[in-house]
Amino acid sequence: MTSTETSQHHAQLRAWAKGNYGLEAATELLIRGFNGRFADPGNPWIHPTTSGHWIDFDTIPAQIGALSGGEQRFLQITSALNDGDTTVNLGRALAGLDRHHVHLILAGIAHAAGTHEHQQIRFRPDRTVTFARPGAIYRWDQPASSPAETPGRGTAVKAIS
């Protein structure tokens, strides 16, 4: 597929998922994870329709046996965010993912929880009430690591001479 066709395909998948936060998050994870190859037509869980494609998330876990462990874990979590019957042991699944894909999963969980739409009540000094939307707890476009991050214990490397 050309980049234009890929963009159109992704836009159509996003439109198909729109309105269900879990489905939106799972779809976005397929599009953003592993360079989007799991959202491509030709995957056994991507089904064509007259108006585009749809994703059968419930069938993914049964069809990932030939993939790497990290790919399997990512797809299991992705499938679990959908409203279907898939369950996943998050402790095991997250432990086997690289930093980039953990970042995507965190953004997906925040989206599935609807944090991008949450409202907070704010009280003004004059005792009137307002509502604010602070935005998602963790955003898709949030950097995977902050430049202000400082190394934690055990991250220093000492050169051996």
What does this structure look like?
It is a single chain. The chain is an alpha+beta fold and 161 residues long. It has one domain. It is built from five helices and four strands; from the N terminus they run ααββαααββ. It has helices at 3-17, 21-32, 69-81, 90-95, 99-112, and strands at residues 46-49, 52-55, 120-123, 129-132. The chain has a two-stranded antiparallel sheet with strand order 1-2. It has a two-stranded antiparallel sheet with strand order 3-4. β3 and β4 (129-132) form a beta hairpin.
What descriptors fit this protein?
two-stranded antiparallel ribbon; 10% strand; 161 residues; two-stranded antiparallel sheet; 37% helix; alpha+beta
Quick summary of this structure?
With about 160 residues, the protein is an alpha+beta fold. The chain has helices at about 5-15, 20-30, 70-80, 90-95, 100-110; strands at about 45-50, 50-55, 120-125, 130.
Low-confidence stretches: 147-158
Basic shape: globular
Amount of beta strand? 5-15%
For the termini, the CA-CA separation is 51 Å
- Strand elements, count: 4
Helical fraction equals 25-40%
Count of all domains: 1
**Oligomeric state, counting identical vs distinct chains:** single chain
Write the layout of secondary structure elements.
Layout: H1 3-17, H2 21-32, E1 46-49, E2 52-55, H3 69-81, H4 90-95, H5 99-112, E3 120-123, E4 129-132
Antiparallel strand pairs: 1-2, 3-4
Helix pairs in contact: 1-2, 2-3, 2-5, 3-5
